[in-house]
Specification:
alpha+beta; 4-stranded antiparallel β-sheet; 3-stranded mixed β-sheet; 9 strands; disordered N terminus
Length: 403
């Protein structure tokens, strides 16, 4: 028996088989391609790779290396700039994934912690605390940026000398700073404000450091030293054990601060010894009576005083005689004349008495001065005589005595 095939059955089966084949190809591709990619992405041992390096602590750069100086215009508002956020430099890839080891710098981490605390205190306008934290961070990990940060804090706190000091120190440590022009302008403004107070800033730098600084003969501190002085000429001396003493004469201008760099020379100078003349022999003079020390003028004053007292006594005696005669005189006209004579003689007696007392007292004072002066000269004369001596540069001949 012959069966007739149904039309349309074979084409439908072909389409289904084709669909199954396509799905099988897709599944195989999804299973095979990840393995091929993983095999290509896996490096050979010893080959460099950058993926693990990002986990190494070397990528943590202390924030102190990015100074607030970049945000100087915002400093007055009390908001530090975003430049205070630590930058992440490109890490150096290790030679092998097996050689990666954590590298921790305690000083850098401690400095970063101090710096971040200082930035927070600065934002809160706690300038004293911010300055202390910046200084401690600088001691742990020195950086020129810390000097700028401290200067900004001092300036906002109104401390002109300290702000000027740290801005100048910032440019001294980093002469090629990108913000040098801006910081120089800040320095000029602070110098002008300091000039109004009648002072100006001076910095003494020595090599080596730690030398004693003397200004106009007074010790002011150790180098490096910064202080405020009146403009004009000053004598500067620098002393350090084992080095020669350096002396300078400086002229501090009124409108700008200056630096005085001094390089000390190793070695000591022999002390300067001035040869003194030979000691003078003492002369022992015989004692002199006190009245011989009185000048003739003093004796004359005393004589005038004594004479005036004598005249006063004579006038008083004659007054007494005239008064007795007037008492016994019966005639009125003669008695009146005698009474007038009594009054006249009384007046003269009083005048000469005052003159005599005054001259006598004056002569006493002069006599005391004469005796004291002569005794002083005599004591000098006992220590004086002819003396001859030679020093390192000259000879001298001297005589002293009483003339």
């Amino acid at each position: 028996m012959r069966l007739a095939a149904r039309p349309g059955i074979m084409p439908g089966m072909q389409k289904q088989v084709t669909a199954w084949g396509a799905q099988l190809v897709i599944v195989c591709a999804l299973l095979f391609l990840p393995r091929v990619s993983a095999a290509q992405a896996t490096p050979a041992r010893g080959a460099p790779t950058t993926t693990p390096a990002a986990k190494t602590p070397a990528a943590k750069t202390p924030a102190a290396k990015t100074p607030v100086a970049k945000s100087a215009p915002q400093a007055k508002a009390g908001v530090p700039s975003k430049a205070a956020t630590p930058a992440k430099p490109t890490p150096t890839p290790p030679t092998s994934v097996d050689t990666i080891e954590p590298i921790i710098d305690p000083n850098r981490e401690a400095s970063r912690v101090m710096f971040e605390g200082g930035v927070k205190a600065y934002k809160d306008r706690r300038y004293d605390e911010a300055i202390e934290l910046f200084q401690r961070a600088n001691q742990i990990k020195p950086s020129a940026a810390f000097s700028f940060n401290i200067g900004i804090a001092y300036q906002d706190a109104g401390e002109i000398p300290q702000a000027l000091r740290y801005f100048r120190d910032y440019l001294r440590q980093d002469p090629g700073a990108a913000d040098r022009a801006e910081v120089s302008e800040r320095i000029r403004q602070l110098e002008a404000k300091l000039q109004v107070t009648g002072l100006q800033q001076l910095t003494v730098l020595t090599d080596p450091t730690g030398a004693a600084i003397l200004v106009d003969g007074e010790a002011v501190g150790a180098s490096p030293w910064t202080g405020e002085l009146k403009p004009g000429n000053h004598k500067l001396a620098v002393k350090l054990q084992g080095y020669r003493i350096e002396e300078r004469s400086i002229d501090l201008p009124a409108d700008r601060a200056i630096d005085v760099p001094i390089t000390l020379t190793y070695g000591t100078e022999a002390p300067k010894v001035e040869a003194k003349p030979a000691a003078l022999p003492k002369l022992h003079l015989p004692p002199v009576a006190w009245y011989r020390d009185v000048r003739p003028v003093t004796w004359g004053v005393l004589g005038v005083g004594v004479a005036a007292l004598g005249v006063a006594v004579m006038c008083d005696l004659s007054r007494g005689s005239a008064q007795a005669a007037a008492h016994d005189e019966p005639r009125n006209d003669v008695r009146a004349e005698l009474l007038d004579t009594v009054e006249t003689r009384r007046t003269w007696a009083d005048a000469f008495l005052l003159l005599g007392l005054g001259m006598t007292a004056t002569s006493g004072v002069l006599m005391f001065a004469d005796v004291a002066e002569q005794r002083h000269l005599r004591r000098q004369g006992e220590e004086s005589a002819w003396a001859f001596g030679c020093g390192s540069r000259s000879c001298s001949l001297r005589y002293a005595g009483t003339f």
